[in-house]
């Protein structure tokens, strides 16, 4: 069967029409646009000033096939994103690199002159390659070769499910990678917040990691999620407290980027099993209306279907703006969105206005000399 390829402006228009939120009736599903050709992304003419606070966009390429098309939404806001970090690679236990499907995002990065800084996970949560100098060297050499071969601006290291005993080995790995990075490239890392529900946070020496990177991304979300009772994904005071603790541990404010979610979780009553819900599903009325919690600065809803009670908490556009202002208050280097591909036009408009009106200049990631 032949699928009609929708022009870029049609995808953007459809996004705008379905961007509202509230109690309106569920709209008819829009046709799913095809991924645009790389040739569709032409360098945009900048008609507004660059945003003052710097932005890292963690990009989930699996969402390119789910309308609204995130490539079209990002292209509608030229200059907003400074660093693009797609989920392209993993380090295996033996230090070799596993490559993932890459989608069309590289074309957008080239057209809009966005620094491409792919995210690198540890495959399956393995920590095996951290434990010996030989395996650390293998992993470092492979990452550096990847950067040189593809002319990347740098990489983001996002190792998760680590153990407290990995702390010194992680520092050794990051120090070795920092020394080996090609001149002019960017090295960043993502860390769990202090006092998170995830025990991996004890694997991070914040000050030491900051000393060996250009930026540290504070993953200030998933305080509640799959495996916990229902509750706010990113409660405001917890985020503020995490920022203060990381700064007190010795991370310079100019190197700290605040991670901001754009999704939520749905629980059934009494369960700790949660389902991830992208923000764009909320705003297309797939989940009806919602309420705002002024203490947690987050949206939520409760409803009953066939006698089963449900609860949902999510970081919507209003919550994202509140966290941008929090990063501004603490003079952080910038913000990092997790994960682009889950959002809609309403979210982009809100965060663009907040960033462009920011009085804080933020700080670019300093490349290796």
User: Architecture of the domain at 47-262 and 316-356 in CATH?
Assistant: Alpha-Beta Barrel
Over all CA atoms, what is the radius of gyration?
20 Å
Helix percent reads: 25-40%
**In CATH's first tier, which class of the domain at 47-262 and 316-356 applies?**
Alpha Beta
User: What are the secondary-structure elements, in order, as H or E?
Assistant: HEHEEHEEHEHEHEHEEEHEEEHEH
CATH superfamily of the domain at 47-262 and 316-356: Glycosidases
Q: What fold name goes in the CATH topology slot of the domain at 47-262 and 316-356?
A: TIM Barrel
Largest sheet data: 8 strands, parallel, barrel
In total, the number of strands is: 15
Rounded mean pLDDT is 86
Number of helices: 10
Report how far the terminal alpha carbons are from each other: 53 Å
Q: Helix- and strand-based class?
A: alpha/beta
The main sheet orders its strands as 1-2-5-6-7-8-9-15
Shape: globular
Description:
It is a single chain. The chain is an alpha/beta fold and 369 residues long. It has a domain at 47-262 and 316-356: Glycosidases (TIM Barrel). Helices cover 28% and strands 22% of the residues. The protein is built from ten helices and 15 strands. The protein has helices at residues 8-17, 70-75, 105-112, 133-150, 167-180, 206-211, 236-248, 279-283, 317-329, 345-356; strands spanning 54-59, 83-91, 97-99, 115-116, 119-122, 154-158, 186-191, 215-218, 256-261, 263-268, 274-278, 291-293, 298-305, 308-314, 334-340. The strands form two sheets. The chain has an eight-stranded parallel β-barrel with strand order 1-2-5-6-7-8-9-15. Strand 13 (298-305) and strand 14 (308-314) form a beta hairpin.
